[in-house]
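Supplementary notes for students who missed Thursday's class. We covered one full example, reproduced here. Read the sequence, then the structure, then the short commentary at the end.
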Amino acid sequence: MKNGWITSFFREMSTRGFDKMKNDSVINRKATEFAESKNDFAHKLHIALKEANETDYWLLLLSESNYIEKTAYDSIQSDCTELIKLLVSIIKTAKSNS
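Structure (token representation):
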């Protein structure tokens, strides 16, 4: 049955999920601006990475449950993967500079 609030929720997430991910990333990036130390900076980046990985998981669930089309999933998931790679690279650089 494809009616009810659960379906509405997942449809809303499929259209707004990437916006949420971008907003979470902006919030976490902004938090790193106020890091108290290099270790604190790396820790905050790890939080952002965990959020990006969680978003990737939810995107997969939405795709496999057919709440988003494959083309939309492929596009958003590609952006998510790029964000994860970027965060990993920044974390590695931050650790090597500490």
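Commentary. DSSP finds three helices and no strands in the chain. Helices lie at 5-32, 38-64, 70-96. If anything here is unclear, bring it to office hours.
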